[in-house]
Amino acid sequence: YQRRVRGLCTLLVRVTLMPAVPAPESAIKRAAFKQQQTENFKKAVLANKEEKKALTKTAYQRGLKYSREYRSAERKLITLRRQAKTNGNFYLEASPKIAVVTRIRGIAQVAPKQKKILQLLRLRQIFNTVIVKLNKPMHQMLRMVEPYIAYGYPSLATVRELVYKRGHLKVRGQRVKINDNKQIKDKFNNKDVVCVEDIVNQIYTAGKHFRTVTNGMWHYKVAPPKGGFKQKRRHFVEGGDYGNRETLINRFLARCI
Question: What distance in Å separates the CA atoms of residue 219 and residue 170, rounded to the nearest whole number?
Fold first, then answer.
């Protein structure tokens, strides 16, 4: 028994004194790569968090600035109206810069010219909605397809609801829902358009990036109006539904959004 124990101790000493076998070079490289990958991932997460925090702050500041501008413009308009009324005159307001257009009739029996105009306006399906900048050619196009659309001049609340509730971006030909401001910043890559409030401002005021913003967004798909239509084949001024509703389009879209 003592010999056996003595031999086992000698074996253990020999094993302990044997030089360690070096790890394979591939395993060392793999471990170093994984460690570097983990560090890079942590740095990316931290940088993303900081960027999101800074973007949230920027969005809040811009929203505050735009809100002040809207209130200031509204107060100025009210003052001008009151001054004109006091002097016994009428205040002639500026012509609307934008219009919101909704298709209210389907694809059956559409003449080729009207069909082409509807395609140019991105109104290929019923209840598709777009916001366009008003000029002489646009007025002529809208008059040509008037029996198939309802349009008018949107308020700030209508534009904001369309963007927030029905807004989607074009990303590599796909329709992508707007979930955060980083999507907008990555899409437009423009220091003037980094958040949802920038989009609302550019559309509502017909800003210098109006075309870029509207082309970068998908057309709006709204629901059928609650309560239905009256008569789609009669003009709005005759008690129907199609045609120019001016500011009353906001009531119509409130039933659709």
Answer: 10
